[in-house]
């Protein structure tokens, strides 16, 4: 059954009320922002956040952007330094996302931050969304409304093509998004702001405003996800990737039904080659192998499909010291 659709024109209580109600009940709605369609849920409700991940088929370790109505509300969940506050006052509402430290009393579940001590926040410039957030007592956690890895949606038709088969999705039809490219992401948790993703707000404008060049994150469009802090994932032992054979001095992180023989210890991420199972086991198995104190960890090849891409990314980061 195709998702139920609510028309956001004209902006009125009649259009806002059912969407607000739907979100208050912990459901997920695809709605237009000025950049791309977002897949939105109550950012204070862990179940809603989990639903977003599951609808999007997103690797659990990729954090979400929280959309707010006012800076004052964000200040309860995240910490602004003076530069962050200046940028916010200059460019919000608008297509700029700031990554800030989570505050000690942050109400956004850690799941939305993928376990990071930071929170990505922005105030969008999109009349329906602005009115909706202003009316509710929670921010909206929203990644782009596409299946993970697919092209972002800038029209309701795109959303239907990417997510139309999903159950329990409400689609807010606001026509085409005016900007059509995602927000620019700046990390403000370090002394100098770092550009994590180029986007709808040209970085030259930010540099001009700050009067200083931005540092660029080496990985370009890649998010500063947990794995970029290599020490976060790297076990103490060396990690050897794409192992097709194994020695008795190695612990083996295996994958799939045919496992290399002869390791000191073998832990199989998924005997059946199931990526969801492998992702769920990945970090706990790396911990177990580290605790085993076997001198080296060998990792069998894991296909670069679906969650396997995120798994390979994290393993790659774990292998570089
Ligand atoms: O324009 C946009 O930004 C759209 C609309 C819906 O707001 N959203 C969007 O979300 O593009 P998404 O999830 O597709 O991309 C957000 C990026 C991801 O690469 C994510 O890893 C990064 O932001 N991100 C989120 N929280 C982060 C954090 N705490 N630290 C670093 N990167 C973060
Ligand atoms: Mg996206």
Would you spell out the secondary-structure blueprint of this structure?
Blueprint: E1 4-7, H1 13-24, E2 28-32, E3 37-42, H2 46-56, E4 65-67, H3 71-77, H4 82-91, E5 96-101, E6 118-122, H5 127-135, E7 140-141, H6 156-163, E8 169-173, E9 184-187, E10 194-197, H7 203-210, E11 215-216, H8 230-233, E12 239-240, E13 250-254, E14 265-268, H9 275-292, E15 296-299, H10 307-319
Parallel strand pairs: 1-8, 2-8, 4-6, 5-9, 10-11, 12-15, 13-14, 13-15
Antiparallel strand pairs: 2-3, 3-7, 4-7, 5-6, 9-10
Brief descriptors of the model:
321 residues; alpha/beta; four-stranded parallel beta sheet; 31% helix; globular; binds threonylcarbamoyladenylate; binds magnesium ion
Please trace the helix and strand order, writing H or E for each element: EHEEHEHHEEHEHEEEHEHEEEHEH
Sequence of strands across the biggest β-sheet: 1-8-2-3-7-4-6-5-9-10-11
What structural class do helix, strand and pairing data support?
Answer: alpha/beta
Largest sheet: 11 strands, mixed
- Describe the global form: globular
The gist of it:
The protein has 321 residues and is α/β, with parallel strands linked by helices. Helices cover 31% and strands 19% of the residues.
What does the model show?
- This protein has 321 residues and is of the alpha/beta class.
- It contains ten helices and 15 strands.
- The strands form two sheets. An eleven-stranded mixed β-sheet has the order 1-8-2-3-7-4-6-5-9-10-11, sandwiched between helices. A four-stranded parallel β-sheet has the order 12-15-13-14, covered by helices on one side.
- The radius of gyration is 21 Å and the shape is globular.
- The relative contact order is 0.14.
- Residues 219-223 and 225-232 have low confidence and may be disordered.
- The structure holds threonylcarbamoyladenylate and magnesium ion.
